[in-house]
Write a structure and sequence with these properties.
alpha+beta, Cytochrome p450, 3-stranded antiparallel β-sheet, 16 helices, about 50% helix, globular
Length: about 400
């Protein structure tokens, strides 16, 4: 299984050059076959849209395997006991649950996370986007990531959860999330694990205290809504809240920053209407293309629970597959000869940026609302937006984004 595979010779997720532009390597993977064993990460790389889309829905794969097997039965070692706080937090969230527990919790959480919830948040999202962009414009520019892209979704999630503005923990939400999400990168270091454990403990402790406050004085926030669902355990509520923050802002932050870098570095703008107010339909189409063209989550991993066969390649039970979202979203077999081209008017755009199947992103409608709001305000308030410096990519590959994006208005 460790035999070299020439098709993935340049698939190097720890290389800054690869992180900066993984798409040529993806093209070679697609040309070389449907599944490639990658020894450095001990994973099967799956690069084609059709396969990635199908495997996201295939119940022979799972985000976890513990609903069917012990670690020993599955041929895996149990997680390090020192990392237990992170795994307790992560393993009780929707992202990593499978089977009956996933069905139960998604059904219960959906009662509190409804389309009406998102609709009710729309005025808040638009106000926050307007004010943040106004601040950037008043300063003549700055770091788009730190001043607009990050604060918006974190503030929205804080509002949604009912985290009081006066709580000093509001300022710690983004650092907590960044530390926890470090564990989703490939082969995380022990220092990364220590930071994730510390953040898991601190964030959980804060949410436990906030839950106690809401039990005494419920509000109309999501935490109060979760408390009204008696079938949820306290740990499930805490894990759900953390997941909503982590998954609820990474796509928005990276799509905003990566998207504007894509636009500004090419000197193109969405054709969103003749007047100062962007056309909502055209803007929505442009945002969907930016989500496809430079996917914020490049890889989604699954465990193989029963043997699968991809074009004659048998991937055995106990293996891990790496579903390459970034490659699938630029697959010419699905998106045609212009798959590698940015087309802000692309109408047929079934990208898989938000996943598919039972793990389809619960927060996708909120992410779309935030993205259209912030892009609309930047187009309206900063029509002369331009790059002030060439940005530098962060070292992470799975969640791929810039360290900063310096702009002038």
């Amino acid at each position: 299984m460790d035999a070299p595979d020439a098709a993935h010779a340049d698939f190097d997720p720890w290389s800054p050059e690869f992180v900066a532009d993984p798409y040529p390597a993806y093209a070679r993977l697609r040309a070389g076959g449907r599944a490639h064993w990658h020894g450095p990460t001990h994973q099967w790389l799956i690069p084609h849209y059709e396969d990635v889309s199908a495997l996201l829905r295939d119940r022979r794969l799972g985000r976890t395997y513990t609903h069917r097997f012990t670690h020993e039965e599955f041929g895996r070692e149990a997680p390090d006991a020192a990392h237990e706080p992170f795994h307790t937090l992560n393993d009780h969230g929707l992202l990593d649950l499978e089977g009956a527990d996933h069905t139960r919790i998604r059904r219960l959480v959906s009662k509190a996370f409804t389309p009406r919830t998102v609709e009710d948040l729309a005025p808040t999202v638009r106000r926050l986007a307007r004010d943040l962009v106004a601040g950037l414009v008043a300063d003549g520019g700055g770091d788009l990531l730190a001043t607009v892209a990050e604060p918006l979704p974190v503030a929205v999630i804080a509002e949604m959860l009912g985290i009081p503005a006066q709580d000093e923990e509001r300022a710690r939400l983004r650092p907590w999330s960044a530390d926890i999400c470090g564990m989703f990168e490939l082969n995380p270091s022990e220092e990364t694990a220590r930071r994730a454990v510390r953040a898991s403990v601190e964030f959980s402790d804060y949410l436990r205290e906030l839950l106690a406050r809401r039990r005494k004085a419920p509000g109309d926030d999501l935490i109060s809504g979760l408390l009204a669902v008696p079938e949820l355990t306290e740990q499930e509520m805490i894990s759900t809240c953390v997941l909503l923050l982590n998954a609820g802002h990474e796509a928005t932050v990276n799509t905003t920053v990566n998207g504007w870098w894509t636009l500004l570095s090419r000197g193109v703008r969405p054709d969103v209407g003749p007047g100062p107010e962007p056309d909502p339909g055209k803007l929505s189409t442009a945002v969907e293309e930016l989500l496809r063209y430079d996917t914020p989550l490049q890889m989604f991993e699954r465990w193989v629970l029963d043997d699968i066969d991809l074009g004659g390649v048998v991937i055995p039970r106990g293996s891990e597959v790496a579903l390459l979202f970034g490659s699938a979203n630029r697959d010419p077999a699905r998106f045609g000869p212009t798959a590698g081209t940015l087309d802000l008017t692309r109408a047929d755009n079934p990208h898989i940026t938000f996943g598919a199947g039972i793990h389809y992103c619960l927060g996708a409608p909120l992410a779309r609302l935030e993205l259209t709001a912030v892009f609309a305000e930047l187009l309206k308030q900063a029509p002369g937006l331009r790059l002030a410096a060439e940005p530098e990519w962060k070292p992470g590959y799975v969640i791929r984004g810039f360290k900063e994006l310096l702009v002038e208005v």
